[in-house]
Amino acid sequence: MNSVSRHPQFCSQLIFVLATILLACLAVACSDTASETISFDPESSPISTFEFSSPAFGDGADIPIEYTCDGENVSPPLRWAEAPSGARSIAIIINDHEALGRIFRHWSVFNLPSGTRSLGANQPTTPQLENSTLQGQNDFGNTGYGGPCPPVGQEHEYIFFIYALTEQLELAADSTAKQVSESIRGRVIGTGSFTGMYARR
């Protein structure tokens, strides 16, 4: 009988220690793999990020009443950094992800020239804007911008998205915002976003 078989308690402890070491090594290896998988470098990624904001309110701040259904219901001013190299057009979409049971789309603007760096407030509610720029229908059923209008007593977060695209969208003016969202897939090479809050009181 060898020495290990004469000491079953020692054998169990040895197995436990070896198993613990093995699990620790696997955890470190998995951690390293996960960190490599989820890391994101905008400069080396095919989809880069660029700054997008409004001079009317800060990221995460309250949207002024004039840009909502309780005020003048006009579009806010927007500005952004230079689009990534290779962009041929720009699209802007505003979504409310807190609407009951769905994403509610408040505005879609597309086919802006890639060199555009801003969009003034109070854009007309017409399908065609300047140059090649078009507007889709919002989920209120109207063309152009439809401001925040949540149920009374609820505060919603509105996400402003900008997309740099490899080409102009082959969509008719007055397409729905959902059609615009679906058409940008596979064409995005740069994106940016910010949020605004609003509650009716």
Number of domains: 2
Q: Level of helix content?
A: 10-25%
CATH class of the largest domain: Alpha Beta
What fraction of the residues are assigned to beta strands by DSSP?
25-35%
Order of helices and strands: HEEEEEEEEEHE
- The CATH superfamily of the largest domain is known as PEBP-like
CATH fold category name of the largest domain: Phosphatidylethanolamine-binding Protein
Q: Which residues sit in consecutive blocks of at least 5 with pLDDT less than 50?
A: 1-45
Largest sheet: 7 strands, mixed
Q: Would you mind describing this structure in some detail?
A:
- The protein has 201 residues and is an alpha+beta fold.
- The protein has helices at 8-38, 177-183; strands at 48-49, 52-53, 61-62, 78-80, 89-96, 104-113, 118-119, 134-135, 155-165, 188-199.
- Strands 1, 3, 5, 6, 8, 9 and 10 form a seven-stranded mixed beta sheet that branches.
- The termini are far apart.
- The model is unreliable at 1-45 (pLDDT under 50).
